[in-house]
Amino acid sequence: MQKTDIDKQLQIIKRGAVEIISERELKAKLEESIKTKKPLVVKAGFDPTAPDIHLGHTVLLRKLRQFQELGHKVIFLIGDFTARIGDPTGRSEIRKQLAREEVLANAATYKKQISKVLDVDKIQVVFNSEWFEKMSVLDILKLTTHATVSQMLARADFKKRLSKNEDISLLEFMYPLLQGFDSVKLEADIELGGTDQIFNLLVGRQIQKDFGQREQVVITMPLLEGTDGVQKMSKSYGNYIGINDSPDEMFGKVMSISDTLMFKYYELLTDVDLAQVKAMHPKEAKLKLAEEIASQYHSKEIAVKARIEFDRVFGKKELPLDMPEYKPDGKEQVITVLLNSGLVKSGNEARRLVKQGGVFFDDIKVDKEDFTFGQSGILRVGARRFLKIIMPKN
Prior knowledge:
By secondary structure, the protein is of the alpha/beta class. It has helices at residues 6-14, 23-36, 55-69, 100-107, 110-114, 129-132, 137-143, 149-153, 156-163, 170-186, 198-210, 247-255, 259-269, 274-278, 282-297, 300-315, 334-340, 347-355; strands spanning 19-21, 41-46, 73-78, 123-127, 190-194, 217-221, 325-326, 359-361, 364-365, 377-381, 385-389. Strands 1-6-5-2-3-4 form a six-stranded mixed β-sheet, with helices on both faces.
């Protein structure tokens, strides 16, 4: 890039960002990068605590892709070591410790999933167990000299837990130090994270300084609310849109968000000109958003079909054309059918949906967990999931 491109780079980098610490340092690093023809090292870490990546994760992934397209070196750090400790950020209690096998099984799915957003041939995928498992106990303990207990207790979520007499483990104090040491090992010029990660990211700057390195620029991105419009997108809250969701499910979930949240999704999940969006009718804007997102993770053609199907089912109140089928053995209860058919992911989810009145058979509410099917018909979960029940003929 030419020197005159710095303002353009900054414009792209700043889209959707909440805070840059500091913009002056970022500009200086970009200028140096152009002068030396050496790309900046841009890092983002992901702890594989669950196997699925959702649109909330892609806020950071899309920003990484923008750095990729600007010619910088992107490092996708998989925190397979730190995931076994658990990031205490935003937590009101000590996280459950994950086994190494669980973490590695989750991590194994990540590269394929992120290929839907990033050019995986042009990124460096790194596991932080590469250095942490080689460190001695003494090496790990020496990291504790780079922070004080008072600094840790000044952290908002720790302070809140302490005020409620809730436990904080010493292991949780270690997490920001380990994340910061990742930046030292990778010699990161820039680190990306959510706004809830600001403490950990700033610890990274301090540790780099202590190790005689130039401090990384910190860029925070907003947390994306899920389909409920309240909680941040999370599988545990049931408000997520997975990048592996079917196109019809993805389209329907996007259409369920509020008009207010729609503009945030446009800004963080697409490259569409926001001025154009504001000039559109809200309903058309949301349809375009759903089509745009479905296109990113499937294809334009498939997204158009999803839009047509959505109009058929929700506009014209017709049944879906492509509906999965299931043949109960005559004794299977609704909970078992929901689970075995793949309509829900767990028995707990199935029971919750029945209890909340979200399950219907031929448009009649199923309000008992031991409900069995006496005839063929359509089983519906919520507004978007359908299953054709085919009972065997006597």
